[in-house]
Request: fold
Amino acid sequence: MQRAVTPRTVLPALALLLAGCAGVQRVPLRNEVVRMRDGRFIGPLEIPVPRRADHQGHDFEFHVTLRTRCTPKLVLAFPDGETQTLGDSDGRWQALLEARATGERAAAAAPAPVALPAQPPPVSEEPLPYPGPSSGTSASIAVDAEVVVPFPQQPAGHWETVTTETWSGQLAFEKERAHRCSRVAEYRATYLNAFDETGMITVWAEVPQELFEAELSYEIVELVPPKVVVEQQVVVEARPPPPRARPPQPSPRTERPAPAGDARATWVPGQWVWSEGKGEWVWHAGSWRAPAAPALRVEVTGAPPNPGCTWASGYWIWEGTSGSWSWQKGYWKAPPPIEDVRGEPPGPGAPWQLGSWSWNGVRFVWAPGRWGKPPVLVEAVPAAPFSGAQWVRGDWILVNGRWVWSPGFYESAQRPPPPQAETPGVAPGPGAVWLQGYWRWEITLSQFVWISGHWELPPGENYVWIPEPQGAGGLIIRGHWELRARVVP
Reply:
C-alpha cells in the first residue's frame, strides 16, 4: 500500500521562517545488481533491505528492474507484505509453463512400462528324423507319415522415426521457449514502503519460470522528512520543492561492435534512457539482434542417473554481445522431491527446511528435510556466583539429529582442561560445517563438563556460515547462516 506523506515543520519565529522549508530528502542507500542463475527459477530469492526501525521510522522507496530473456513472470514481495508482478503476463506462455510443470510431475509419477518377453526364434520346418526304438525296450514303433507343423512367416517391414512427448504440449513448449529466449526484455517496478517490515525483498514465481542472462537490479532510497525544531508554536506546512527539470538528452555514444558471429544478425544501436530514481540519463549499450535459430541438435541422453529423472533438452541461446548462437546442452533433472516425515518440532518457532536433491557428479543424492534451529529462548540471568565469572547465553545445539536447548551458564575464571580429541566423520550433507566441542563450567557440579561437537547444515542453497567471536577463553564457537547472492557492482 502506498500513502502520501505531508511533513510538518515547527519554526521559532518569522526571522527563521525560511531556514527549514526544505521538502522530503531522497537519500540513496543501496544500488546493486544480482545476477540470477540460468535455467528454471521458482525461488525464493531474498534481498536484505534496511529496517524502518533502524532509520527513525522513515519510509523507503524501492526501484526494481529485471533484465532477462525468456519473458518470465515473477512476484515481488516487499518488506511490508505487499506484492507486485514483475515480468510478462502472457497467458499463452504461462499456460505452457504450467503444462510443463504438471506434465513432468505426472510423467515422473507414472508407473514404468512392463517389458514384454522377447519373441521366440522361428522353428525350423524341416521334419526331424525318427530316432528309432530306445535301447531299454523291445517294443517298436512304426511311422506311416511325416507330420509337419507350419509357422506363420513374419511380414516384411521397416523402421520409422516417431516423435513422441513425455507430457502433452512438450513440443509446442520447446518451440515457444526457443522463440522467447532469443530476445531480451526489461521490466520495472516501483514501490513505497511505509508500514511494518520483515527486512527482506522476496522474489519468487508461482509456476517455474525460464531465466537466461537475468539481472535483477534494485535501488533503495530513504525518504527523510524535514527536521522539526520546537521553540515557538508557529506551525508552517513544509512544501516539497518543485520537480527538477529534466536535462536534455546527451548525444548518442559512438559504438564500434565487433563483427557478429552470425552473418544474419542485425545491429541495434544503444540509446539513452531516463532513470527517475537516479535523476539522470542512463546509457543502454547496443546489441546484435538474433536471426532465426539453427535446428536443434540431436543429443544422446543415455540411461537416467536415478529413477524418476527427466531429461531437459538442449536449446540455442543468442549471445547479443558476440552476435552468435550458443548451444546449451541438455541435462538430467532431479527426480521429484521426496515427502519427508516431519514429526514434532523441537521447539516453538522452529522453521522446517525442505529436503533437496544434490548432484555428486554421478547421481542425485537426497538430503532429507529437517527442523531448523528454533529462536533463542529468553532467559533470566542470575547473579554471578563469584568474581570473574562470565555469563554465556543459552543456545540450541544439534544432538543426534534433534535440536536440544542448552541453558545459559556462568563460565569459570579457572582454565578448562585441554580439548578432547573428536572425529567428525563424514559430513551429513553438502556445505555442512563442523563446530568443535568445548568445556562448559557446570555451576551445580562445580566442575567443567564436555559438550560434544556437532554438524551444522545450511538451511538452503547459497547460504554461507559466518562464525561469531569466541567466548571467553576460546571455549565456544558460534555462528549463523547468511544468504549470499552474487552481487555485481
User: Anything to note?
Assistant: The radius of gyration is 35 Å. Residues 8-96+173-240+266-289 form one domain.
